[in-house]
Amino acid sequence: MIQIAIMGLGTVGTGVAKVVAENSRQIERKLGEPLQVKTILVRRFKDGPYRQLMTDDFTKIEEDPEIRVVVETIGGVEAAYEYTRRALAAGKHVVTANKQLVAEKGCELLSLAKKKGVNYLFEASVGGGIPILHPLTQCMAANRIDEVYGILNGTTNYILTRMVRAGASFANALREAQEKGYAEADPTADIEGIDAGRKICILADLAFGHQVDPALLPIEGISRLSLQDVKLAGRAGYRVKLLGRAVRLPGGGRTAYVAPHLVLESNPLSGVEDVFNAVVVQGNATGEVMFYGKGAGELPTASACVADVMEAIQQSPRREEIGWSPDSAGFEDPLALPSQYYFRVEGSLADAAAAFGRVEVLSENGETAFLTDRITGQDAMQRARSLKVLACMRVLG
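The structure assignment produced for this chain is given below.
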């Protein structure tokens, strides 16, 4: 019998307990012995099917030699970091879906896991139920990864889908997302791009082998996005998507950021709707490979956590090394990347042409919406200084 513990009994923690119980036969067949949840760490005891497994004393997990794997679903950094560090130090494998913890402390925790001969695995931290980290680090290991980008937050993708499909304003689409349970009462982490930022940091860390500090990542969310810009983009054959991007630069540097983009309707990402996510990995040998599915939710995320539990056990004492250097040197401003830009400005086509030269006009009616030629972000911002800019977005491509 393989005994595990769960830290936290929220949506994901409950999902882990359910997956272990409901898929017990399949799991046992693959592991060769049963997998059982022995202990669940909670802050407050509550009645339910897991009441007899609950404890509020972490030492019951830390000092139990029968518990081989700990699944951390607490969230945040403070308590989750302390308990994860202690579990690894006690020689236990740790699995997590905690994107903030991995983005901020992952390099340190991976180093500790290596020292102790155990695994620290976090497949569920980026794509929920979408397998992306394992393919990135294992299946595409023979590639030089040149770029990783995608739709990394289901809440914002749902809001943008409603703005396109129903013509809803941002405020109304957000309210609908909250009513359906897709957005929290405080949706800041989603709509301001913070959640997507943590995920692209992890992807960049693994793809390029160097730490990307989430605190330094340029992030722009969708809270200031106008329905007018969504409609203008749609008429021109584009969809607006919030993307996280990590790019290897020609000189050997790298950059990453989160921002709304115009995506051509012919691009598969444009058809990713509602709460679904998609991640594109560009390898120098494979070309572009896309991973698609539900990026969050109780059972999809729990499924990824339990898969990591099984991998930790099967690869015991530890799997082939994954990780990245704590050195963050070489990270460059994403404004150095060349791109087409979408602008909506107060003024005429003549004003736009005077600032940018040749432009593709999308709308002209007191305000002018247009696409620029491919230029760097620094150049775009410099030229736009002579205009009253109402909206600005990159064009993917």
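Interim note for the steering committee: The mean pLDDT is 94. The chain has three domains: 2-129+298-314, 133-294, 338-395.
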